[in-house]
């Protein structure tokens, strides 16, 4: 059987990450790392509400590259239906751990280029630092094509990935807005800049509650895009039949960038 070089590279890269998981770089006890994660969660829930995707139990949701199921667990806590959640990953060990944490959720070891739930079956597809880990352009395009096929006509993609190359990680690359447009032609791309550069965030220590929001208010210090990718022409607000009108919280997203290239900076109230 022919070994796919990109698949093998990805598995080797994640095996290397596993060896470093105990380091301070991913230590949940680090205040800066914890705030990066919490900020992303607040923004994600805000986006789901804003785009009329709540209540989540009405949606069929797929996460590509689900790992051990952290994001799927979060969706469950926000009201998603386990029977309508799906997750795939290349790593058997990660899927095994996810299955132990997520009984009733459809979790599979699969190559995203070949996996499908069927045409027009998904309301929402989660892509959490997926394409930055794929260095082969043809593999990336094939996965994007599968995602496009699985989406319903009013389905959406929830995107979170970094757009600046990590100079110390040869296994990744930054994914620009132009790259995203190339992967999903014919889609509207609405993104915001978020997540303070991790090397800065991890060094904030006890001053994190004060310094993190202040520093994250500067777009030049943020390295990730978070937002929704949707079929062109789909209303940005609540989608018909998807549930109640979204609730706007006091906390607002920062550095929002639309597909037209406009940027609107918002500060938390």
Description:
The protein has 269 residues and is α/β, with parallel strands linked by helices. It has a single domain, classed as Vaccinia Virus protein VP39 (Rossmann fold). It is 32% helix and 21% strand. It has helices spanning 5-20, 31-50, 70-77, 92-101, 137-150, 177-183, 198-201, 208-215, and strands at residues 61-64, 85-89, 106-109, 122-128, 151-162, 187-196, 222-231, 256-257, 263-264. A nine-stranded mixed sheet has the order 3-2-1-4-5-7-6-8-9, with helices on both faces. Residues 237-269 have low confidence and may be disordered.
Write the layout of secondary structure elements.
Elements: H1 5-20, H2 31-50, E1 61-64, H3 70-77, E2 85-89, H4 92-101, E3 106-109, E4 122-128, H5 137-150, E5 151-162, H6 177-183, E6 187-196, H7 198-201, H8 208-215, E7 222-231, E8 256-257, E9 263-264
Parallel strand pairs: 1-2, 1-4, 2-3, 4-5
Antiparallel strand pairs: 5-7, 6-7, 6-8, 8-9
Instruction: Write the element-wise H/E pattern from the N-terminal end onward.
Output: HHEHEHEEHEHEHHEEE
Q: How would a crystallographer describe the biggest sheet?
A: 9 strands, mixed
Number of strands: 9
User: How many discrete structural domains?
Assistant: 1
Q: What is the distance, rounded to the nearest whole angstrom, between the alpha carbons of the first and last residues?
A: 57 Å
Overall average pLDDT:
85
Work out the radius of gyration.
Answer: 18 Å
Assign a percent range to the helix content. 25-40%
CATH architectural grouping: 3-Layer(aba) Sandwich
CATH superfamily membership: Vaccinia Virus protein VP39
Basic shape: globular
Determine the number of helices (DSSP H or I, runs of at least 4 residues).
8
Q: Which stretches are poorly predicted, pLDDT < 50 over at least 5 residues?
A: 237-269
Strand order of the largest sheet: 3-2-1-4-5-7-6-8-9
Q: Which structural category fits the helices and strands?
A: alpha/beta
